[in-house]
Amino acid sequence: MEIIICKNHEEVSEKAKELVVKQLQRKPMSTLGFPTGSTPILLYKKLVDAYKKHLITFKNVRSFNLDEYVGIEPTHPQSYHQFMDDHLFSHIDIEKKNVYLPKNDPTHAHENARLYNDLLKKYQIDLQILGIGTNGHIGFNEPGTPLGQETFVVDLNEGTRQDNLKFFNHIDEVPYQAMTMGIKNIMNSRKIILMASGESKSEAIYQMIKGPVTEQLPASVLQLHPQVIVILDEAAASKL
Ligand code: GLP
To answer: Is 2 designated active site?
Structure first.
């Protein structure tokens, strides 16, 4: 695990942008794995800028999103489909046919998870970007998820729903289920960047880096991956 400590979230995002730009310049046909949440928003803005400055193109990029809520429409303002369109996809030249996100549809959720998993087996992710939940989750792999888990439909735990309440008006609106790449899918990526900012992430970051590899702190499994870069601001790194 390589650990980079930056002054603030702006620097974290800048560092992550540099790594994504380098990846795309080296391999324009990369398959990228994208997260959502508040952490990557500035990174996406910087990638849009880099695209507009002709430093990179997404024309031959394939993308997979980490996760998506189940049971809300893809057009819902808080769906991850909408998030990705708002922050990245509608501003760059990525082709729609190369963009993959888990489906929101609750009726065929398990079948859709299987199909998504098949795609992930077919196209290995070159560079997976991750955030982290305050309980150490990655994607929506909550504590207790088996480390060999593949894409699945997950019941969100109460703490995670509370953390994501900031994006909704009321807790009753926060979905109860999501579909997520499993830990095994994430670990199958060639390279991983995990970004974290803010004090609220410091305990999870400490456990992820210094604690044992355990299902109770899903991000700790990254200790076993050969190519992980962790980019932290000073607050997220404060317990190290
Ligand atoms: C959600 C997402 C995760 C993300 C986490 C942290 O639970 N499913 O992929 O890493 O939130 O979100 P934030 O970046 O807003 O702290």
So the answer is: no
